[in-house]
């Protein structure tokens, strides 16, 4: 999240096998021997160039089956980062654009609802509930 209480989203490239051209959040997979905190920091840096500052809270746990037929389980967190929030370094070939969205601006995420069954919109809504709970 940024200082204005908005959450960061990025669009996956059309070449991605899973959820092509869909809005997404920063994320990825745990590598062998990696802690969740280490993975959060690594993925944030790889996808944006920012550094993890603090984990504010867990947003939720979600399960889904991708177009490849594999069932996946993810845990999402709301975090603060250090770096130039106006200039993320999007991961080449993986993401094409970004947006910071407030709670009243989530309709843009519905563009991806058919691709991801509205999951990113649900995660965003859950993220704003966490923000509200934290008094932010």
TrEMBL record:
<dbReference type="InterPro" id="IPR020084">
    <property type="entry name" value="NUDIX_hydrolase_CS"/>
</dbReference>
<comment type="similarity">
    <text>Belongs to the Nudix hydrolase family.</text>
</comment>
<feature type="domain" description="Nudix hydrolase">
    <location>
        <begin position="1"/>
        <end position="123"/>
    </location>
</feature>
<protein>
    <submittedName>
        <fullName>8-oxo-dGTP pyrophosphatase MutT (NUDIX family)</fullName>
    </submittedName>
</protein>
<dbReference type="Pfam" id="PF00293">
    <property type="entry name" value="NUDIX"/>
</dbReference>
<dbReference type="InterPro" id="IPR000086">
    <property type="entry name" value="NUDIX_hydrolase_dom"/>
</dbReference>
<keyword id="KW-0378">Hydrolase</keyword>
<dbReference type="GO" id="GO:0016787">
    <property type="term" value="F:hydrolase activity"/>
</dbReference>
<dbReference type="InterPro" id="IPR015797">
    <property type="entry name" value="NUDIX_hydrolase-like_dom_sf"/>
</dbReference>
């Amino acid at each position: 999240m940024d200082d204005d209480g908005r959450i960061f989203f990025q669009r996956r490239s059309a070449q991605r096998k899973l959820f092509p051209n869909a809005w997404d959040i920063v994320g990825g997979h745990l590598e062998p021997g990696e802690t969740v905190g280490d993975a959060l920091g690594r993925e944030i840096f790889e996808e944006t160039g920012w550094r993890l500052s603090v984990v504010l809270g867990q947003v939720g746990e979600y399960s889904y089956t991708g177009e490849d037929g594999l069932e996946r389980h993810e845990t999402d967190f709301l975090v603060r980062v250090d770096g130039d929030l106006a200039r993320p370094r999007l991961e080449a070939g993986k993401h094409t654009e970004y947006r910071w969205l407030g709670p009243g601006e989530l309709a843009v995420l519905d563009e991806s609802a058919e691709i991801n069954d509205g999951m990113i919109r649900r995660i965003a809504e859950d993220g704003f509930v966490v923000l509200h709970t934290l008094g932010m």
